[in-house]
Write a structure and sequence with these properties.
Elements (H helix, E strand, L loop, with lengths): L3 H4 L2 H19 L7 E8 L2 E13 L2 E14 L2 E14 L4 E10 L2 E9 L4 E8 L2 E8 L7 H11 L6 E8 L4 E17 L2 E12 L8 E6 L5 E8 L2 E8 L1 H4 L14 E2 L6 H4 L3 E7 L13 E5 L5 E5 L17 H5 L12 H10 L6 H15 L12 H7 L4 H14 L4 E13 L2 E15 L2 E5 L9 E7 L16 E7 L2
Antiparallel strand pairs: 1-2, 1-14, 2-3, 3-4, 4-5, 5-6, 6-7, 7-8, 9-10, 10-11, 11-12, 12-13, 13-14, 15-20, 16-18, 16-23, 17-18, 19-20, 19-22, 20-21
Helix pairs in contact: 7-10, 8-10, 9-10
Amino acid sequence: MRPAYYRKELGMRACRALIVAAVTFIFAAPSFGAEETYMAVMLNGVKIGSAFSSRQAQGGRVTHTESMSIKLMRGQTPLDISIAISSEETEDGKPISFEAQQDLGLSRMSTKGVIGADGMLDVVVNSPESTQNRRMPWPKGALLSEGLRLQARRHGLTEGVSYQTKMYDPSTMVAMNMTVTIGAKEQVDLLGRVVQLVKVIAVCGEGPLAGTTTINWCDDNYDILKSRIEMGGMMLDMISCDKTFALSPSQDSDYFDSLLVSSPQPISKQELTSALKYTIRPRNDATLSIINTGNQKVEALADGGMIVTVTPARPPSGQSLPLGGLDKELIEATRPNEYMQSDHEAVADLARQAIAGATDAAQAAMKIEQFVHEYITTKDLSVGYATAAEVVASRQGDCTEHAVLAGAMCRSVGIPARLVAGVAYTPAFASRLEIFVPHMWVQVNINGQWMDIDPALGFDSGHIAIAWSNGEAVSFLSLSRMLGNYRIEQVEAP
């Protein structure tokens, strides 16, 4: 068990990652924008930042430029987030190239992509500590901003019209299948100015973002004047306004409290070392989504609730190191990506140092768990969402930095690893007692079972896993279907 003081801080980072994911998703949503547009970014009615977009057509090519800057606060700790995207397309909407840059607190990542005549996408991903080159097929049918704009115009704004599209987000390099449905005209409040706009609903159709919905309101020129995404009891809006208001100072916004879930009873340290059974039920007609793992078994109830049993067992011994076999899922879980840079020299060196003396994969994973906890010496909230290589250099961060580094180190030595987002119990958080807060940790695959390790807190039965990912910030949106939309009714021994 890690020190109690750290457990009080565990949820802040995961929720900030959730906000980053939401911002990324709403920002990437189909853009039918005007030549130049300013927007205010609002969280639960409080101004937290601004956004800008422009469109320029010249020489048979169209360039879209979009940027967003927001500021979040938790107590006295600020986090500045900015995203900038530019895309170049032919005048008929064929993708040519894109650039994206994300600044998340002290962490920065930039992406440049070129789509060749052969249909291949060449990408360069830069972060302060690494450069990665990737080559992959351009997703069939995927569109950037101009293509989405032209497609929207072709389908029109007649109520009831529905069509499929595939949106490519340069900031995450993810192509998302979307269903777009044209709704009725509505009176919409644009920061005190009421106008009649057409409601357009875009729903993501597959993957970890399946069911995530953006609502856009646009005028007869197909210019979006307001966008909204709701998640976990929070409402994130982008609202058209003049430049002066868009760039005016933001307000402090404390978004965290609505995501905390009360425990029906105190849970002792001794109880956390044994199996616990949770009865969980949805709120507001939400649909519960909770994963099965080697440490967690889920039973669906007829009324939409779930019984979740968590057993704090350690990974079993016996699996050789590195991974052998041909299982595609497990092989993929040993590969590097933009966040878990398992092939980075500094990450690999640290991993070899951590597992010295280990005789099998389970022992190696637990050595990495302890090593990362001790290696990250500055436990703070100033890092937005860092890559593994950045964490090696800074030795700084909260639960996401612990998880990203540990996951990358496990992958580096041949242990399949993924990140998991969920909630963890703490006896006190801020002014709340006996509470479950958002958290992030690691799962490793040992002998075919996904088992939990937690370099930040140490794994116990106070952890409830909700969703897993490869570390991409946007994948946290799958967590939004649960946060703020469930209650824990009972905690007992199985």
